[in-house]
Amino acid sequence: MASVTQPVSRRERLRLATIDEIKQTARDQLDEHGAAGVSLRAVARAMGLTPSALYRYFTSRDELIAALAADGFASLADTLEEAFDLAPRDNHARRWLEVTRAYRRWSHEHVTEYMLIFGTLGLGYTPPASQPCDGTERSVAVLFRCMAEAIDAGLIDPSRFAAELTPALRAELEEWRADTRNTIPPEGLAACLIVWTQLHGFLSLELFGHLPPAIRDVGALFDQQMLDVLLRCGYQGPVDFVPGRQEHGRPE
């Protein structure tokens, strides 16, 4: 017999709605006032509540910030998973490009969240690395899938990085491999970090306004950088450096 889902009580619906309102108010304050405007007292004031009432939902500012960061990672993970699933499976370079383009679009549409989860906005809060949220793991898992499937298809041979890994670094990559429970060898994880840092480095330069002013076709530069990093990792499949060019400047 199929199980019957119990309806959510009115009290629980109100509690969840209040939590959503608290988080949205905190996001609005991040957008409008920056780090200095984020506090439980300020959120309570904006909602017409007493600070003590807010403590029934979040016991500290750090807990509220952690919830906002988790929401940001979940939103990013949803975006990357959808891009991966919609991209062509028989063209690994194009799939990687579609995933990174989706990442770029998300970062432009969620600048505050991007700065929060990757830069902490100077909030004096850093999520504990030993306690990654589900969205963090899902986001990284998309990168792992791109790399793992390209390796399985014989299009990337990460063994080329073996000679570059010191014993200590190899041991640390093995530890990361065990922590993430994936089958990519340490050399492949080194390649993952190369493409990951290239992606984040580009987005940080772009979002913070540090790309050369003369570069106006930023979309074309982004595509070139994302495909070039695949080649530097030893990608042996076909690469089209002009596949469905993006609009100039910011992604649409």
TrEMBL record:
Entry keywords, A to Z: DNA-binding, Transcription, Transcription regulation
Residue ranges of coiled coil: none
Superkingdom of origin organism: Bacteria
SUPFAM superfamilies assigned: Homeodomain-like, Tetracyclin repressor-like, C-terminal domain
Pfam families named among the record's database cross-references: TetR_C_33, TetR_N
Protein name: TetR family transcriptional regulator
Native source species: Protofrankia coriariae
Domain HTH tetR-type: start-end pairs: 16-76
Location of the DNA-binding region in this protein: 39-58
PROSITE patterns: HTH_TETR_2
PANTHER family hit by this protein: HTH-TYPE TRANSCRIPTIONAL REGULATOR RUTR, HTH-TYPE TRANSCRIPTIONAL REGULATOR RV1816
